[in-house]
Amino acid sequence: IPFTDYFSLRGDGARVKGEKTPEEVTDYCVELNQRYGTTFFEGKFSTQDPKVSMKMVELMRRKLGDEAMIRIDSNQAYSLATARQLARPLEEFGVRNWEDPVATIEEMRELRRHCSIPFSTHNIDIARAMELKVPDAFVGNPTAHGGINRMLRFVGACEHAGIDYWCYSGDTGIGSACYLHLCAALGWIREPNQSLFRMQPMDIIEEGPFTPKNNVVPVPEGHGLGVTLSQDRLAACHRDFALNGPCNKYHDPEKPGTYRRLPLN
Fold first, then answer.
1. What is the pTM of this model?
2. Predicted local confidence at residue 121, as pLDDT
3. Which of 55, 76, 113, 173 could make an S-S bridge to 22, C-beta 3.0–4.6 Å?
4. What is the largest CA-CA distance in the chain?
5. Can you tell me the distance from the alpha carbon of 180 to that of 168, in angstroms, rounded to the nearest whole number?
6. Are 139 and 122 in contact (CB under 8 A)?
7. Torsions phi, psi of 115, nearest 5?
8. CA proximity to 78, closest of 28, 119, 41, 137
C-alpha cells in the first residue's frame, strides 16, 4: 500500500535530533530517498512566516527533482489573503496536494478561484463538500468515521461524488493494520496514505512500527489483521498514560501555557 514519508520542522526528541531549518528538513528527506527509496513526501507548511515553509518546499524540489511527490499540510494556519499569495509559487513547485490551507470550506471555495492545486481536509462533511465542490479529497481513518463499516460507506459515497480519499497516520499498529487491509480492498483509495511511522518511537504490536520502503508498506498477512499485540509495550503505554495523562498537542515547550490563535498569518 503506498504511503508518503512525513517531514516537518520539529524539536529534539528523547533519542532523535529534530530538523529546525528548511535545509535540515531537506537533508532529512534526501536521506530518506537514498536509504529507503522514498519519492512520496508530505509535511507541514504552517510556519507563522510562510517564507520559511516556502523555502523548505523550494529546497526539496531542487534537491529531490521533478519526480518526487510533495504534498503539504497547513493545518488551517493561513488567512484567505495569505493563502492566495502562496498559491502561485506553490503551483510552480509542483505541489501535489494542499491540506487545510485555510480555516473553513467556504474559504477553501474562494481559494479555488486562485489555485489549481487539489485541496484535502480532515473535516469529513461530505454533504457540504458536494455542495461547494471542495475539497478534492478527504483524509480520515476507521476511528474518525466510527468504525470499519462507517468508513466503507463513506468511501463509497466519496466514489459516487468523485472525491478522493486516503488515510492519515499516527495510529497504533492495530489501527494502521486495519486501514492497510481496507486500502487493499477499496479500489477508490488511490493516492498514498500519510505516514508517521518513522517518527514513532515504539508501537503496541510486535511487528511495528511499520517501515515504508520504496513508498509502500506490505499488507499484514495471517489471521485477523495479521499483527500480534505486544503485551509488554501495551502495558508500558498504559503506565505512561496513567502517570502523565493524554498528550497535549497544543503544548509549545518554548512557550508553555501560551496558545496560538489562528490564522497565524
1. 0.94
2. 97
3. 55
4. 53
5. 11
6. yes
7. -145, 130
8. 119
- Write the single-letter amino acid at 14: A
Q: Check which CATH number belongs to the domain holding 213 and give it.
A: 3.20.20.120
Q: Between the CA of residue 24 and those of 10, 13, 28, 108, what are the distances in Å? A: 10, 15, 6, 31
Q: Which helix (H) or strand (E) holds 130?
A: helix 126-132
How many domains does the chain fold into?
1
Does some domain include residue 259?
no
pLDDT digits (tens, 9 = 90+) for 178-196: 999 999 999 999 999 999 9
| pLDDT, tens digit, 9 for 90 and up, residues 85-131 | 999 999 999 999 999 999 999 999 999 999 999 999 999 999 999 99
Range of the domain at 119: 5-244
- Model confidence over 237-263: pLDDT tens digits? 999 999 999 988 777 777 888 888 889
Residues 6+ apart with CB under 8 A from 188: 155, 156, 158, 159, 164, 165
> What distance in Å separates the CA atoms of residue 92 and residue 62, rounded to the nearest whole number?
12
Measured distance between the N- and C-terminal CA atoms of the chain, rounded to whole angstroms: 36
**Which cell is 124 given?**
469529513
In a domain, 38, yes or no: yes
- Asked if residue 132 lies in contact with residue 109, where contact means CB atoms within 8 angstroms, the answer is yes
Domain assignment of residue 253, yes or no: no
The DSSP element (H or E) to which 33 belongs, if any, is helix 22-36
Cα 216 to the chain's mean position, in Å? 15
Q: Does residue 258 lie within any of the structural domains?
A: no
Measuring CA to CA, which residue among 207, 145, 213 is closest to residue 176? 207
Q: Can you say whether the dihedral through the CA atoms of 231, 236, 241, 242 is positive or negative?
A: positive
